[in-house]
Design brief:
By secondary structure, the protein is an alpha/beta fold. About 30% of the residues lie in helices and about 25% in strands. The strands form three sheets. The protein has an eight-stranded mixed sheet with strand order 15-14-13-7-12-11-8-16. Strands 3-2-1-4-5-6 form a six-stranded parallel sheet, with helices on both faces. The longest helix is centred in the last third of the chain and has 20 residues.
Length: about 350
């Protein structure tokens, strides 16, 4: 198969995850980096061994040797960049959250469908080996019927950019920046959330960035939600961007009528109390490079080797949950129905 020419938009923190993973896949050919500062983009491209760096997105999208684009720029730029890429007929993988709100997600999805352009959203955690294994174990009935789950997303928070904390740039705070990962995993396992109760808070009103700047925090840095899924499963979800140690990507416990699965806990990546067993197991897992499964799956969809995924619709569903969390928190934690995509 011919290599897929890819343009990469963004030179920030998350760029390394995508570029390192794509470098392990022979079909991927990163041909240009696009950034706001042309000198920085050129230097970043040179450091990574990428042929070109530029600030000219329009010229990049006009290139015939570019078939796809990865968008890893700040959240409030996603819609405009993706709409341009859609108009140019380029396949898209956009960093989560897809956009700052559900209305923007709908506009992006509608434009992509009208232009018959593949639009995907990057949810890295669902491709981790332990989560894939857990999903298979549940499908095989190894813990009986799922009844409930506990989800935790926690990090020290981003210290490399002030835009995360500005309500004029992006809203949602910890829910959109971190919690959408947990929302995606839970909905992948249990389907749509019907209703929820939630509380949010700003517990550290000032942050010191890595460059020494002090910023006022305008978006919630902590959130707690309880979900009721349409199939009856219940789940709790706590989210923090102020925890010094944080979680190792996430922590998750899944309870069934006949067993339990623990993910990324103190016992390791995957721990299983299987139906009928009298002891815990720690199944061995493959150890591919971080992100390889994720990006290979995207490229397989583009090449036709596998069906395209529905991550844009999943992202919209996640944004609708995030917006329900905000509504519930504004009403003192009142039970709130979740709009469906």
């Amino acid at each position: 198969m011919a290599r897929i020419g890819i343009a990469f938009v963004g030179t920030g923190f998350i760029a390394g995850y995508h570029l390192d993973a794509l470098a392990t896949i022979p079909d991927a050919d990163i041909r240009v980096v696009v950034g706001r500062d042309p000198a920085k983009a050129a230097a970043f491209a040179a450091q990574r061994g990428i042929p070109a760096g530029t600030s000219d997105l329009d010229a990049t999208l006009a290139r015939g040797d570019i078939a796809a684009i990865v968008v890893a720029s700040p959240d409030d730029t996603h819609e405009a960049i993706c709409l341009k890429a859609i108009e140019a007929g380029k396949a898209i993988l956009v960093q989560k959250p897809m956009a700052p709100d559900a209305a923007a997600c709908r506009r992006m999805i509608a434009a992509a469908q009208a232009a018959k352009v593949d639009l995907q959203v990057s949810f890295m955690h669902r491709y981790f080996e332990e989560f894939a294994a857990a999903r298979d174990l549940i499908a095989a009935g190894e813990i009986g019927t799922p009844t409930s789950a506990r989800m935790r997303n926690a990090t020290p928070g981003p210290d490399w950019g002030d835009w995360f904390f500005k309500k004029s740039r992006v809203g949602g705070g910890v829910v959109l920046q971190l919690g959408v990962h947990g929302i995606d995993l839970l909905t992948q396992l249990f389907g749509p959330v019907a209703s929820l109760n939630a509380t949010t808070a700003i517990l550290r009103p000032e942050r010191i960035l890595a460059d020494g700047r002090v910023v006022t925090v305008e978006n919630p840095d902590s959130a707690w939600a309880t979900y009721r899924f349409a199939n009856g499963v219940a789940a709790s979800h706590d989210m923090s961007m102020i925890e010094a140690a944080g979680t190792d990507r996430f922590g998750m416990e899944i309870y069934g009528t006949d067993g339990t699965i623990q993910l990324r806990g103190v016992a390791g990546a995957l721990r299983l109390r299987r139906k009928g067993a009298t002891a815990w197991e720690t199944p061995a897992l493959p150890t591919p490079p971080l992100g390889q499964r994720h990006h290979q799956r995207w490229l397989d969809g583009l090449s036709g080797a596998k069906p395209k995924e529905t991550t844009a619709r999943d992202a919209l569903a996640g944004l609708l949950i995030a917006e329900a969390i905000e509504r519930s928190a504004a009403q003192g934690g009142a039970a709130t129905e979740v709009e469906q995509p």
